[in-house]
Amino acid sequence: MDNSFEKFNMHEKPIKMRPYILPFLWVAVWFNLLFRKHKIVRENFKKIEGGCLVISNHMSFEDMKLLVKFLCPRRSFFVASIDEFVGKEWIMRRLGCLPKKVHYADMALVRNIVRLLKKGNIVSIYPEATYSFAGVTNHIDQGLGKLAKMANVPVIVIRQNGNYIYSPRWNTLPKNKEVPLLFNSKMVVSKEEVATLTAEQIQERINEYFDYNDYKYQRENNIRLSNKSMAHNIHRILYKCPNCLKDEQIVGEGNDIICKCCGSKYHIDELSILKNTNGETKFDSISDWYLWQRGFVKESIENNTYDITFPVKISRLLNSKLGFNHNFAKGTARQTNKGIVIDGIITESNEPFHFEYNEKLNSTIHLTFDVKGCQESAFEVHDANETYLVYPLDSTPIVKIRFAVEESHLNYSNSLRKTK
User: Fold this and answer.
1) pLDDT exceeds 80 at position 176
2) How far is CA 41 from the centre of its chain?
3) Per-residue pLDDT for 374 more than 80?
4) Contact status, residue 135 vs residue 168, Cβ threshold 8 Å
5) Which of 153, 261, 273, 285 is positioned for an S-S bond with 246, CB 3.0–4.6 A?
6) In what order do the strands lie in the sheet with 76-81?
7) Half-sphere exposure of 287 (CA within 13 A, CB side)
8) d(Cα 365, Cα 342) in Å, to the nearest integer?
């Protein structure tokens, strides 16, 4: 394996956003949002004083623009995926961004965040670490309460609505610009309360306020869409037919979701309500269909019958200047209730490649659609030294892989509790 290049420095000293950048950033954000209907709500506070942990859900790039406007005139440090530094590390660091390997435990990063908070800074985190896949809450880190407790700072949770409906992560066609954006914020733990509450109690408050459903928001506010391609790429998140129960047979055509196996057809109307046009309507919401699929994975994990194998292509992150080597290796991945094992051959050297992503250490896995440089879908794995993107070369749905990682970890954690 070639290691002749300088590796990405994950633990470089954080740089506070430069004051000369702020006017340009604010003007750009204000101008962009000038043409977007939006509302920012502060439920129980007027302004942020001193150090504060800000936690927000994540649905599209619009989230960041609203967050910058909400924080104005304060500056913040932002925890950002290491992928986002490729080709723009210099500006990312001067915007106050802290690099993170997504869903990988990094105690050096935790120490940096605590140090910054104790010095009176704001640190903003997207704990889902990815855009919402189906307009509902993704897995979030359950260590946020401990982080707030360690730093002894208040916690503000932001729940944004409309950004997913505006631009679903899996659909790359034109945006639904008629969608109004709602930015709700609440100080769920005050400076006084953080000293008296346990980390678990703080986490409970975060989880409770964080929970969201963008399709529910759309219906409650009667937001009607004129988009004629709402089912484009729907197979990325909906892979099991609720009629014949077959996997990997779903396709999207216009505003219709069709099973190639049994012919079942669901139409998506202007309120994103589903209706089966040739049979029984099992689900009237894309998010309900998405979550229903998880139940099958959960059952097979618990019964120790989950076992899939699929061919893969592997990209390796070199550094922020060189980016990804998208032809690093090819091989096979096998996923069971014990995790993911990847074996292959490195293209340039013909050396064997081996990587394990186990259920004990990993509570979830990062997914990405339309990867820059290859326009494909992949899941991301890390260890202390390396970051890889792994692309299934067949029709294996990556959301199913994520379901299995999360259910395997939950199953493992539950088994530990039973033995105590």
Assistant:
1) no
2) 24
3) no
4) yes
5) 261
6) 38-42, 181-189, 155-161, 52-56, 122-125, 76-81, 97-100
7) 18
8) 15
Write down the pTM of the prediction. Answer: 0.91
Single-letter code of the amino acid located at 297:
V
Cβ burial of 34 (10 Å; 0-12, 13-18, 19+) is exposed
Read off the tokens for 43.
């439920």
**Between vectors from CA 362 to CA 399 and to CA 303, what angle results, nearest 5°?**
65
**Residue position matching structure tokens 């993170």:** 100
Distance CA 391, CA 379 (A): 7
Instruction: Measure the CA–CA gap between 299 and 181, rounded to whole angstroms.
Output: 37
Virtual CA dihedral for 146, 151, 154, 156, nearest 10 degrees? -60
Work out the widest C-alpha separation in the chain, in whole angstroms: 61
- d(CA 282, CA 272) in angstroms, rounded, equals 15
All residues at 6 or more sequence positions from 144 whose CB lies less than 8 Å from its CB, including other chains: 53, 55, 125, 127, 155, 202, 203, 206
Q: How far apart are CA 399 and CA 296, in angstroms?
A: 13
Of 42-51, 213-222, 267-276, 371-380, the one with minimum mean pLDDT is: 371-380
The number of angstroms, rounded, from the C-alpha of 77 to the middle of its chain's C-alpha atoms is 19
What are residue 117's DSSP bridge partners? none
**Average of per-residue pLDDT across 108-130:** 92
Q: Are 318 and 5 in contact (CB under 8 A)?
A: yes
The Cα 336–Cα 338 span in angstroms is 5
Cβ(379)–Cβ(366) below 8 Å? yes
The sign one gets for the Cα dihedral 7, 75, 129, 88 is negative
* Selection from 376, 364, 373, 367 nearest residue 405 by Cα: 364
Q: Apex CA 104: angle with CA 314 and CA 111, to 5°? A: 145
Measure the CA–CA gap between 26 and 36, rounded to whole angstroms. 15
Mean pLDDT is lowest, of 46-55, 163-172, 218-227, for 163-172
Neighbouring residues of 8: CB distance < 8 A, sequence distance ≥ 6: 82, 85, 99, 317, 319, 320
Asked if 176 and 167 touch (Cβ cutoff 8 Å), the reply is yes
